[in-house]
Design goal:
The complex is a heterodimer of chains A (259) and B (521).
Chain A (H helix, E strand, L loop, with lengths): L2 H12 L4 E12 L2 E12 L3 E5 L6 H8 L7 E6 L2 E2 L4 H10 E4 L11 H11 L5 H14 L15 H13 L5 E5 L7 H16 L3 E5 L3 H7 L2 E6 L2 E6 L1 H6 L4 H10 L1
Parallel strand pairs in A: 3-8, 3-9, 6-7, 7-8
Antiparallel strand pairs in A: 1-2, 1-4, 4-5, 9-10
Helix pairs in contact in A: 4-5, 4-6, 5-6, 6-7
Chain B lengths: L2 H12 L8 H33 L28 H34 L4 H16 L2 H13 L16 E3 L2 E9 L3 H29 L5 H19 L6 H14 L2 H27 E2 L2 E2 L4 H23 L1 H11 L13 H9 L8 E4 L3 E2 L6 E2 L3 E5 H27 L3 H9 L4 H31 L11 H12 L2 H30 L5
Antiparallel strand pairs in B: 1-2, 2-5, 2-8, 3-4, 6-7
Classes of the chains: A alpha/beta (259), B mainly alpha (521).
């Protein structure tokens, strides 16, 4: 059976047409410690999902499994109809369709802002340099820092760096964006500028999965909130439902601690 | 700010502290005192040494370089040098060969082993670890002697006149492999290669630009190689048409020969002044802001003064030592230097090599041969010979240094934060692209400074050749001072030679270091 046959089969069996991310019984251990414990969830196209939970609850591990920065050991993950397996071709395909923004920005310090953004389109998508640079400039415009194109990451503030990181991810024209605590390493006055960019992205119809502690963002932007604890999904619901009348005791406890 | 405040401020500024509390004055004073101390110490040592030597009736000076030397050298550009100077030159060339060849090989091996230690392949990883630990923990001298002894236990060379059979000959005299000989048409062919490289570069740039504009794969490097290859192929047959190039060099050589010593002294002085002026202007230009010249710090003033003083020293040396200028003239023009057995100066040599009447193939390959000049058969000059001593020193320093370079490379790669790999993976870069574009450029900046140190170490460690009698500059120098008694002079030559090597390496490494720097702020 060829790869495309395999992926079609999976799509038919597991995922409806507008399912972007499908997780089914995902388990992962770090040594003896079970980081993910039977995670099953479906994220639809154009949906914005915020993942909440205390630290160590497996939020980041889960989101990192979705583009194979961590390897899940049991269960299945299907992203846009392609199943994540050891098949390098599938991994490559998924990574080029899933953009990721990290807590620590992880910009390439030896490259200018423009080169940071154009690196992957040029080397992965094999696009002409001139065209990519135009794209990069328009993306910088979109995240509000067109004047920083020629600078190096070390010359920018944290908020500016994170916006460059978002532009870098967008340059691959992904169908899904993953955010792993994008504002946790920022000074308070810079959080808003990054959240604004994310809000704009959400309204433009991007499928987004966001791990964050920004309750305001979750309330305002999320279509759905997923609450995790000890590697399990405890509760899922719309923001109003989740913040006003949570069903689980553990959710209520978490909310009482942070609100 | 009110007027009274300004008045107080002005008064405070006007009141200078006494000189022993004035930081600026003290700083200058300390610099001058330090400089005087150094100069005085040097002067003291020099006069003392000179006095003692005169008292013991030991003549000093470098005249011995031109006197005959009654020794053969085992290997090198000239195994039977007619003067001490020529012998030392031959030894210096041996050392430089060892250093350059050693640096290249040690770098390649070291990088492979260093990356290998990070491999996820268990066998490769273990093998590389064993290599590193073995090389690092056995003294270099022991390794050199070990290799020497191993080669000595190989079968003896049998005397045969004709070229040997096969491509590789291994014996207790070392290793001999076929050698590419530069023959008559080579230099004219070189002109073709040069033009080919220039045209190829032009084509490559055009193809690169085409790639940038369209994203199409345009194979820039491949097209460069194709152009160069085409020129090389045509030049192989057509090279005699460039015979006239030699005449140009001949003309230059004649012009240089007609110059007088005074002209050279004037040119050197002018160059020294020009260099100082250029440096100071560039320095001031860097200190200039849109608002005008920034205030110079004391350090800045020191640098300017030293630049000027440096050029003054060059001029004084050029004027007081006229023989330096005539040596330079001989080296550059067509006269040559007899005691170094240079029949020609640089341009004279070029005019001969590029001249007409050389119509043979540019290069030809010869098999190793064995000849018997004295009592024992040995490898002849037609093969590329790695003699026993050379092999021992070369493999000794290469393996030893590679062990250290491997650790430096491993450390450099590990020093790149994990987030960089993750970010590169997340945007979909493949492994090779990620290494080439993201990891290595960052690792390189950590690797470079200690790598430069290893290059310096390797160069200096080649002096261990003396232990097994390979004719590097130290071994030759020892022969020379045993025969002439000029110990101090030979040591001075050694020191100057190694200093020159080290400074060259430092300059090259620093050049790359500055280029690799990451811009922050």
């Amino acid at each position: 059976m060829s790869v495309s046959d395999a992926t079609t089969a999976v799509t038919a069996e597991l995922a409806a047409r507008d399912d972007m991310i499908v997780c089914e019984g995902v388990n992962k251990w770090f040594g003896d410690f079970q980081a993910l414990d039977g995670i099953s969830a479906v994220i639809k196209e154009r949906e914005v999902v915020v993942v909440l939970g205390p630290s160590g609850s497996g939020k980041s591990t889960w989101i990192r499994c979705i583009n194979r920065l961590e390897v899940h050991q049991e269960g299945r993950i299907v992203v846009d109809g392609v199943e994540l397996t050891n098949d390098l071709r599938n991994i490559e395909k998924i990574r080029s369709e899933v953009g990721m923004v990290f807590q620590q920005f992880n910009l390439f310090p030896h490259l200018t802002v423009l080169d940071n953004i154009t690196l992957a389109p040029i080397w992965v998508r094999k696009k002409p340099k001139r065209e990519t640079e135009e794209l990069a400039r328009s993306l910088l415009e979109r995240v509000g820092i067109p004047e920083q194109a020629e600078k190096y990451p070390g010359q920018l503030s944290g908020g500016q760096q994170q916006r460059v990181a978002i532009a870098r991810a967008l340059a691959m024209e992904p169908r899904i964006m993953l955010f792993d605590e994008p504002t946790s390493a920022l000074d308070p006055e810079m959080i808003k500028e990054v959240l604004d960019v994310m809000k704009e992205l959400a309204t433009s119809g991007m499928t987004m999965m966001v791990v964050t502690h920004e309750m305001g963002f979750a309330r305002e932007v999320a279509d759905r909130v997923i609450f995790m604890e000890d590697g399990q999904i405890v509760e899922t619901g719309t923001p109003e439902h989740f913040f006003t009348s949570p069903e689980e005791e553990r959710t209520r406890l978490f909310l009482s601690q942070i609100l | 700010m009110s007027n009274t405040d300004q008045a107080t401020l002005a008064a405070t500024q006007a009141r200078r502290p006494p000189f022993y509390r004035d930081a600026t004055v003290l700083k200058w004073l300390a610099q001058v005192v330090a400089l005087l101390l150094v100069l005085f110490t040097l002067f003291f040592l020099a006069t003392q040494a000179q006095g003692n030597l005169e008292e013991k009736k030991i003549a000093t000076g470098f005249d011995f370089l031109g006197t005959a030397l009654g020794s053969d050298l085992g290997s090198g550009i000239d195994t039977d040098p007619h003067t001490s100077g020529r012998a030392l030159l031959s030894g210096a060339v041996n050392t430089i060969r060892l250093a350059i060849g050693g640096i290249i090989a040690a770098t390649i091996l070291g990088v492979l082993v260093g990356v290998g230690r990070l491999s996820s392949n268990w066998v490769v990883k273990r093998m590389c670890s064993v290599f590193v630990e073995t090389m690092r923990n056995i003294p270099l001298l022991v390794q050199i002697i070990l290799i020497f002894v191993v080669i000595a236990s190989l079968p003896r060379v049998e005397a045969v006149g004709e070229p040997i059979h096969g491509w590789l000959h291994l014996s207790n005299k070392g290793v001999s492999i076929p050698r590419v000989h530069i023959s008559d048409g080579f230099y004219q062919w070189l002109v073709f290669l040069l033009i080919g490289a220039l045209v190829g570069r032009w084509v490559m740039r055009r193809r690169l630009r085409l790639h940038d504009d369209t994203g199409r794969e345009t194979y820039p490097v491949l097209s460069f190689a194709a152009v160069l290859g085409a020129f090389a192929a045509v030049g192989w047959f057509a090279h005699p048409i460039f015979g006239w190039v030699g005449a140009i060099f001949g003309l230059v050589a004649d012009i240089i020969d007609s110059l007088s010593q005074t002209v050279v002294q004037a040119v050197i002085s002018a160059l020294a002044v020009a260099a100082a002026v250029w440096w100071i202007r560039r320095f001031l230009a860097r200190r200039r802001t849109p608002a005008g010249l920034t205030k110079l710090t004391d350090d800045d003033r020191f640098r300017i003064i030293f630049a000027a003083a440096g050029s003054a020293v060059v001029i004084v040396v050029a004027v007081t030592v006229p023989s330096l200028s005539s040596v330079l003239l001989d080296l550059a023009g067509g006269r040559g230097i007899d005691w170094l057995r240079f029949d020609n100066g640089f341009f004279g040599w070029l005019s001969e090599k590029f001249g007409n009447g050389r119509t043979g193939a540019p290069i030809d390959v010869k098999r190793p041969d064995i000849e018997q000049l004295g009592n024992f058969p040995n490898y002849g000059p037609s093969g590329l010979n790695l003699t026993q001593g050379l092999a021992a020193v070369y493999f000794g320093v290469v393996l030893y240094t590679a062990g250290f370079i491997a650790e430096i490379v491993r450390g450099g790669i590990l020093a790149v934060p994990k987030g960089q790999t993750e970010a590169a993976q997340a945007v979909g870069l493949r492994r090779v692209t990620m290494l080439r574009r993201v990891i290595l450029p960052q690792a390189f900046r950590v690797i470079l400074p200690p790598l430069g140190n290893q290059y310096l170490n390797l160069t200096k460690n080649t002096s261990l050749a003396i232990a097994i009698g390979y004719t590097d500059i130290v071994q030759v120098g020892q022969t020379v001072y045993n025969q002439t008694g000029k110990t101090l002079e030979v040591v001075a030559i050694w020191m100057l030679f190694y200093l020159a090597c080290s400074l060259t390496i430092s300059v090259v490494v620093n050049f790359f270091n500055v280029r690799m720097k990451i811009v922050e702020r």
